[in-house]
Amino acid sequence: MREIINGSDFRRMLISAAASIEIHKQQLNELNVFPVPDGDTGTNMSMTISAAAAELRKTEDPSLEKASSVTASAMLRGARGNSGVILSLLMRGMAKALKGHEECDGTLWAHALQEGVDAAYKAIMKPTEGTILTVARLAASKAARAARENNYLEFVHEAAIAEAKAALADTVNQNPVLKKAGVVDAGGKGWLFALEAMLSALRGEDIIVPEGAVEVKEQADFSDFADEDITFTYCTEFIVSREGNADPEKLRAFLNELGDSLVLVDDEEIIKVHVHTNDPGAALHEAVKYGSFVTVKIENMRLQHTEKVMSEQELAPKIAEPEKPIGVVSVCAGSGLADVFSNLGVDGVISGGQTMNPSTQDILEAVNKVPAETVLVLPNNKNIIMAAQQVDELTPKHVVVIPSKTVPQGVTAMLNFNPEGTVEENTEAMTQALGTVDTMQITYAARNSDFDGHDIHEGDYLAIYGSSLFGTSQDIRVLLRALAEKVRDSGKEFITIYYGEDIKEKHAQKAADLFSNICPNADVNLLRGGQPVYYYMISAE
Fold it and tell me: Rounded distance, CA 348 to CA 278, Å?
């Protein structure tokens, strides 16, 4: 039984973990309980951890600290989707615990697993139990107890795996949606695959992706992580150098009472804070107790940046010099939708959306190309919001994520964008606008399912209203008519229909005519979106 590991061992363990998730990614994708073709937890986790594996393969005989820091940095940039971001945060916390160590025993490994859990929970304002977070938390807790019994790393890791299995099985009871479908959480199962692969490598049985493995179609995550409503006036950001032994958690508690949208990141040298508040003076007065300020940004009161200190991060190249106060980048799939956003004034369009979530690095590169001091990001997909939120700490630009979950929400947000307004004014106006638009989408069933009272067969058309399944039929016209009647009854006045790449214009025009006939008091517009997966995306305001 292995007592300790070094950097080379850690490298092999992570490469094996990446291989295992790649091998099982379609199995993870298919755990999606919503029968639309967008279940890509496995794909996102695989692409995230594979970014680290690629860098580790370039690093020969690394120290433990080097191997873990390379892993954390690569995964932060390569993170895709909510599941990928959480996976990257788990690894980032582990790297923090392993910093300065040449070898790792069972006690340190248990501490690293717990640091990973802490990093993930700290970054998510409203953690959802019955997910990968629960599986990782309980596994880390069991590892700590095992380390007190036996300090061999392999013993501790075996205990973590045993608890992860039990915790994963229980996710079906913690999440009502999973319970109804009778499946476990996909992200949690992905973490279990990673832990098991690490153990195999530790025992000399490295996991290797079979040569010529078939690539599967990429899809998107079902898990719905709640977003936040920004109601405070001042966007306050600062970096404080760590001086003394004051507990940053006390600062977190103070700021949490003072405002919202709080993100606090601390390491051995700095504390970085982002918070929305009506009293930035109180925030700064409390923060100065923890050390001297390195940078401060509040509305129009901007102090000169010195340098953002993040030891594990490098600034991306080609950072455009600011020529204006505010710019915008938007995520969407389809040339027609890209034209819509360009015409509305966005500075850059990132290709992505359902089935093709862009990574944090993709978003970072787009942000850095915008010649503005502050860049607003429209993810336009609930599974891209978390990846976008990681960008701010990777660039000297100020990045604000407007949490749009659909393309129609993003379009409405841009209609409320004022280039002459302040960052705070635009953030508030654009965020509030998200709730004024109803989004409808028509796609197809990726598998047979009995979901929410609907008997669904593979290939059926599916209509989604907001985030809920609205109806299913083998005739798309039946769904279009039902949606039009729903819009009419809700009294909406402005309807925009974006038709996808698989819909001919003449058929799209018939859909628009149907809406015009059923909703005679509404203004109906038809636009070519060119989006994949979704035949129609419809907004109603």
Answer: 31
- Residues 6 or more apart whose CB falls under 8 angstroms from that of 298 comprise 234, 235, 236, 237, 280
The confidence score (pLDDT) of residue 183 equals 83
Query: What is d(CA 529, CA 541) in angstroms, rounded to the nearest whole number?
Result: 18
pLDDT for the residue numbered 109: 98
What is the DSSP secondary structure assignment for residue 356, as one 8-state letter? B
Here the tokens at position 282 are 């109180």
Per-residue b/e over 339-349, b at no fewer than 16 CB within 10 Å? bbbeeeebbbb
Q: How far is CA 87 from CA 76, 154, 532, in A?
A: 9, 22, 27
pLDDT < 70 stretches in the chain: 33-39, 211-232, 261, 267-268, 299-317, 354-355, 452
What is the rounded end-to-end Cα distance, in angstroms, of the chain?
64
Q: Which residues contact 530 (CB under 8 A, 6 or more apart)?
A: 334, 335, 336, 337, 500, 501
pLDDT for 31 equals 82
3-class SS at 536? Answer: strand
Q: Which residues lie below 8 Å from residue 56, measured CB to CB, with a gap of 6+? A: 11, 14, 15, 62, 67, 70, 71, 74
* Residues forming beta bridges with residue 441, ordered by sequence position: 464, 537
Helix (H), strand (E) at residue 191 = helix 186-202
Task: Identify the CA nearest to 364 among candidates 336, 338, 412, 329.
Answer: 329
Cα–Cα dist 188/178, whole Å: 12
Q: Are residues 514 and 414 in contact, defined by beta-carbon separation less than 8 angstroms?
A: no
Q: Which residues contact 306 (CB under 8 A, 6 or more apart)?
A: 294, 295
